[in-house]
Amino acid sequence: MENKNAWDKYKAKDLKDLGRVCEGYKAFLSKGKTERECVELTVDMVKKAGYKNLDDVLAAGKKLKKGNKVYAVCMEKTLALFQMGEEPLTAGMNILGAHIDSPRADVKQNPLYETDKLTYLDTHYYGGIKKYQWVAQPMAIHGVVCLKDGKTVKVTVGDDPKDPVFCFTDLLIHLARQQMTKNAAEVVTGENLDLLIGGQPLAESKLGKDEKDAVKANILAILKKQYGIEESDFLSAELTVVPAGAARDLGFDRSMVLAYGQDDKVCAYTSVLAMLDEDKPLKRTSCCLIVDKEEIGSVGATGMQSFWFENVVSKLAALQGYDAYAGGRDALANSFMLSSDVSAGYDPLYAEAFERKNAAFLGNGMAFNKFTGSGGKGGSNDANAEFVAKVRKVMDDAKISYQFCELGKVDFGGGGTIAYIMAKYGMNVIDSGVPVLSMHAPYEVTSKADIYEAYKGYRAFLRDA
User: Fold this and answer.
1) Could you give all domains of the chain from N- to C-terminal order, each with its CATH number?
2) pTM for the complete prediction?
3) Residue 432: CA count within 13 A, CB half-sphere
């Protein structure tokens, strides 16, 4: 079944609104390269839209009523938004759930070293990457350093045009005869992803009596001057290495976006915007959930497998006068959810990896995956047919361009989302998102038409599911 290209239906007013959504998205991508940054940006957005911190509502002892808007934050890395509906919370919510972590390299706890008059930061890559793609690229460092006195120092260097950048080096082609015979997974090893950060020694007159690593000493002097941090402070730091540079339009026609971290910030931003653009109270409570750690299994306190979201929903139930546990569980079990995550876009240059009639094409609208997983649907949610039919009706009634797809050919690989975790509560969940080319590469590609259709589709789901 062939799907029509979404671009063909747009009028001037549609293109204007598409531009608004995509320009806001690019700005979000350019500023929000880490989970902390995405949460901070989102909190700024929702406060302007009238959302109140749930902790403040609880402290004031207020009840939640129709139309009330609240948000909750977990450890600065995960966030949930709620707009209370006309029906009681126990009747269920319409939930959009996306993740804001992306593949990268994390700086180790004892990372700084000098060798042969060059200084490096040792890293440990995060998420699934082709390591050879990350060398010889301009990189930035984003994150925080937490000091023993309780102060948190923000570090963002490499994205301002005036900043220096950093890189993982590669072996020159002239000496790479042996390297070029290696399997792609071994061309660059994880231990060789050490970030080059300096090459100028500290003046001899400023060196300590027993200091031998003059270049490292110079870097430490710079860090002390600019950020007030010592080498030991790396122990309590969260520093990430990400591709430098802003999100850019791709193509002579500017029809696509090229940027780092579109998996899955493209779904996170459009989900948040769908919530904020819906001012009138809806029949069911609407929720937008953006979470951390999906790329490494949704683990940890800020991942979807933690009880944080369940606890927040229990608090909401109590604020509506229900038993916190039973009311919260009823709310979750009766909810409908779009697990808003990207899908693999069909790439004609690598057609052998796709089964064409079940592939997602750029420009054909938002992509639904009835199931993800790998091989025999291992690790999948697999939405039931009744819920798929309901979602189809919502999208058709709202004239959304959409397509149903699989990640690729059955035995070529696979991947997962947070869908199966939320399905544990007994709610109906299906994966939906935006097709992406070069997924998990330093720079990924999306179609502006698909971004816009996802935004409109998420609004329709919140309103009519």
Assistant:
1) 6-102+260-464 (3.40.630.10), 104-243 (2.30.250.10)
2) 0.96
3) 32
